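Work package 3, deliverable 3.1, input record:
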Amino acid sequence: MKAFPKFRLTRTAFSYPYIVFAIIFLVAPLILVVFYSFTRQVDNYSVYKDFENSPEVIMDNLDFIGYEEDSALSGIGTYYYNGESLTVVNYREKHPETYEIFFADGKISLIDEYEGDELIDENLDNVKFLNRLTGIYFTIDNFVRFFSNGDSMKVFLRSLYIAFMSTVFCLLIGFPTAYVLSKMKEKTRNVVSVMFLLPMWINFLLRTYAWRTLVEKTGIINTILDSVGLPAQNLMYTRGAVILVMVYDFLPFMILPIYNTLIKIDRSVIEASYDLGANHYRTLFHVIFPLAIPGISSGVTMTFVPAITAFAISKIMGGTQCATIGEEIERVFNSDMWFGSAMSVIIMVLMLASMFLISGRNGDSDDIGGGLI
Amino acid sequence: MAESIIRLENISVALGGEQILKDLNLNINDKEFVTLLGPSGCGKTTTLRIIGGFQRQDSGNVFFADEIINDLPPYKRNVNTVFQKYALFPHLNVFGNIAYGLKMQNVPKQVIEERVGEMLALVNLRGFEHRNIQSLSGGQQQRVAIARALVNNPHVLLLDEPLGALDLKLRKEMQIELKNIQVKTGITFIYVTHDQEEALTMSDTVVVMKGGEIQQIGTPQDIYNEPKNAFVADFIGESNILPGVMIEDYRVMICGILFECVDKGFDNNEKVGIVVRPEDIEIKPEKEGFLRGVVRSCVFKGVHYEMTVEQINYPYTWLVHSTDAAQIGDTVGMCFYPNDIHVMKGEDIDYSVFSAVPKDEAEETEE
């Protein structure tokens, strides 16, 4: 008798729970979303004049009224249309979703080709095809729809713009902050970095609502402007407001990885640059900045990716005019999860591609390290 | 005498409450190979950093060709540094690293290429222009670091233990190569090391430091043959250090025996320290030596045997290097010539750390 391989508690064994976790919570949803994005379920029965050559719908939304158990799967059964009953049998094995139906004296009856006493050829004009679109079938329509639909594209491009601008501002503020932070003495540095992390302890919805009270029409900023005698500014429900709050929310994710790479830069490399005749600015530009690129790229990824999919911020600060792709996915998903899945797959591919581009650039400077973790 | 290029005047530095340099005065002549030698923490690297401009002194002045350069930032000093761990730019290739200094001076591209080519030839790295820094060996990185500093044609090159990370054979090769480069380029080298052999091999002038103070400045021969104090004697090479009494000029009493020597200028009957190098001691049959002792150990060291000889009637253990082996337990005689006896002012010598104790403890004080 051959014994089962013994289970040994090795170090690898500790990773099994994580692998199980990853399969359940990462791989399975991913496969589902990709599957949805390439399929579509239609409960709708339509009668086409000639399904293969001209998909012109003659009758739509037939109601299903009854079937025998076996025939339910193949669509054979009795249907009801405009008060008339209609029975469907399998017509072609090649196109199991296509059935032939036959109109005779205003009554819809059916012809079974294999038992074909009633010949189709003789009554060609009366031959119609019922396309049973029930069930899940493969299609790329979801993607075509996204790129051909002006509205989706508009939302998509707007999201790209908002995410891009947020990332740029985060970088513009984040790099100098991280640089100053890295130059501080250890004690001050710890205090200041806690100050940057402190807002992250508060729920981010709460933080976003706090900003709302600041920039609202009757908010704090406008109240102050009003009391000084300046005209009130319309800040709410603008792209600016969305970008502002995104920058505020995602700034720590930009600062931390950059700061981490900056403090790891060997002090003597910077001294070498001074030694070779570079002043502070040129050293910053020629040595510190290039060496901080791993941190910058992970900071950019960690800002851009959540920014492009964020929907709460744009919903709260931007209203309907500033709906982002995240909001759009959320909205669409409720009514049409196939299209919603396709949208999220598109975003996912875009993000993976951008991450790949960013990480490919600095592939060989691994030793400097970076990243938040 | 060559003219002075760098002069340190009454330099004092304290870091984190610890006094690193104490009122240091040092004059470095142009075109010389000067080595700052001393154990870790003696302030030699700090001295170098002050010259390079990376460390600000608390008091005192730094002169460069008779001009005070206290406030000049590193990038304005006509001085370049080869850093301890090379400090090459990891994001640039060999060419980029060497060209960096010239690029910062906005030298035309063509000239940069020419100069980098010259430098690569000088350090024997022709054809390495496009190599990645990480793909180079330690020795090659070292050469790049030297080329990177030299390409700017500095007046003075500062080297901070540049060979510390290399293996022994490579280190010896690089020592000779560095010395050749120095002679060829005529640049003043200020070299920091804790390796006394390295210092003696390469230098024109050796500056021995300890505890932030200069112990002795001199040629390698001076430092080795005429150590000014017990620390120098012990740090440079191996020594037998023991107390003696200077009876009068050219006559010294060691272990109750009157020796002739070549030193003078001490007070009569002044207590002094005596240094005798282990290789200067000859092992003779018992009756022929001035001093007698029992051989306690005898270790083959390649060129010579290293023996410890416990002196009879005195608490001293002598370290002897001899090409002839002696049997352990034998009683032997030891003798040395007048010019092998080095006399130092010796009031405050702590003899306990030197030859009277086994050698391995004395070695610990070196590190």
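DSSP finds nine helices and 20 strands in chain B.
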